[in-house]
Amino acid sequence: MEAPTQALLVIANCPDEACANRIALAVVEGGLAACVNLLPRVQSVYRWQGAIESASEVPLLIKTTAGRYAELEAAIRALHPYDVPEIIALPIAQGLPAYLDWLAAETRA
Fold first, then answer.
1. For residue 53, pLDDT beyond 80
2. Residue 20: exposed, middle, or buried by beta-carbon count in 10 A (0-12, 13-18, 19+)?
3. Which long-range contacts (CB under 8 A, 24 or more apart) does 53-57 make?
4. What is the domain-level CATH number for residue 13?
5. Which pLDDT score is estimated for 1?
6. CA geometry: angle at 103 spanning 88 and 92, to 5°?
7. What angle do CA 13, 14, 15 make, to 5 degrees?
8. Total-model pTM
9. Is there a domain that residue 19 lies in?
10. In a domain, 20, yes or no
């Protein structure tokens, strides 16, 4: 089990900039993330319901902690238009200590 202060990088893709901005603002304002980077559009190719699909999406890089992950996931799901949005959490193994301290402080419940 991860410690509640374990830093995480959560990756999610949105269908457009409006959705990406709405999610980024909501999770930072709610203290569920310290920072969200909205990246330039990417082209995603994937299989969905038996068919190969291709879509232009806006990736989000969301910095949070393990202790806030469940609430963050719920917020993304509530604000996201996809039936099954991509939400992937990766542990941040190392980083600038001052940055990681800031991340933990910004997401403290």
1. yes
2. buried
3. 55/15, 56/15, 57/13, 57/14, 57/15
4. 3.30.70.120
5. 57
6. 45
7. 130
8. 0.95
9. yes
10. yes
92 contacts 7 by C-beta, under 8 angstroms: yes
Q: Is residue 1 part of a domain?
A: no
Average pLDDT over the chain, rounded to an integer = 96
Residue 71 domain-assigned? yes
Q: What is the pLDDT of residue 88?
A: 98
Q: What's the confidence (pLDDT) of residue 4? A: 84
Tokens coding 40: 């330039």
Domain that holds residue 33: 7-106
Contacting residues for 91 by C-beta, under 8 A, at least 6 apart: 2, 6, 7, 8, 9, 66
State how many domains the chain has.
Answer: 1
| Averaged pLDDT, 14-21 | 98
